């Protein structure tokens, strides 16, 4: 195996995007998930909590791993570059931004949503082998297994394919 699969995950970035996903934030800050994160080497966590109402983040009394949080920034690029591992909701922009930076990505689908199109994206990208996904309920177990799970490097698509398709659809060519 190459270093991509054997790296340590010291710095974790968690993002819920512009939405509300309190269950993910509650899970990441729970004793069971924090224990799992420590077991794979996580020592620092940055949480982007969006518009959620989960209040326990500001009341956390733990020192390890260290946790900082915020609601929004203009760009998540700095945090994504900083991270060794990304845990994200299944929003397309968040997933693609992490994958383009070749960050190991664990997607947590929000199974409380109706007509959850995000699970389709997570499932497709998982079948492509570039990420793994789970639910909030299986997060601790998936984190413990994550270092041993194989994944492929993300290969960005060829934009010419999309442009050609658009040209054909709109009769530009």
Automatic annotation (TrEMBL):
GO terms for biological process: dolichol-linked oligosaccharide biosynthetic process. GO terms for cellular component: endoplasmic reticulum. Residues 12-143 form the Glycosyl transferase family 28 C-terminal domain. The keyword Endoplasmic reticulum applies. This is UDP-N-acetylglucosamine transferase subunit ALG13. Coiled coil: none annotated. GO terms for molecular function: N-acetylglucosaminyldiphosphodolichol N-acetylglucosaminyltransferase activity. It holds the Pfam family Glyco_tran_28_C. It is found in: Endoplasmic reticulum. Belongs to the glycosyltransferase 28 family. The keyword Endoplasmic reticulum applies. Keywords: Endoplasmic reticulum, Glycosyltransferase, Transferase. Its EC number is 2.4.1.141. Gene3D superfamilies: Glycogen Phosphorylase B (3.40.50.2000).
């Amino acid at each position: 195996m190459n270093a991509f699969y054997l790296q340590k995950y010291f710095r974790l970035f968690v993002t819920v995007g512009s939405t509300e996903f309190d269950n993910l934030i509650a899970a990441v800050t729970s004793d069971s998930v924090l224990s799992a994160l420590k077991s794979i080497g996580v020592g620092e966590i940055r949480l982007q909590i969006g518009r959620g109402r989960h209040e326990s983040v500001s009341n956390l009394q733990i020192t390890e791993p260290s946790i900082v949080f915020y609601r929004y920034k203009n760009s998540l690029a700095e945090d994504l570059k900083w991270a060794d591992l990304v845990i994200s909701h299944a929003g397309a922009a968040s997933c693609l931004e992490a994958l383009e930076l070749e960050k190991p990505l664990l997607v947590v689908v929000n199974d409380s949503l109706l007509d959850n199109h995000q699970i389709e994206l997570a499932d497709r990208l998982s079948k492509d082998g570039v990420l793994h996904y789970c639910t909030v309920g299986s997060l601790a177990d998936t984190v413990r297994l994550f270092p041993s799970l194989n994944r492929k490097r993300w290969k960005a698509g060829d934009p010419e394919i999309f442009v050609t398709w658009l040209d054909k659809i709109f009769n530009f060519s």
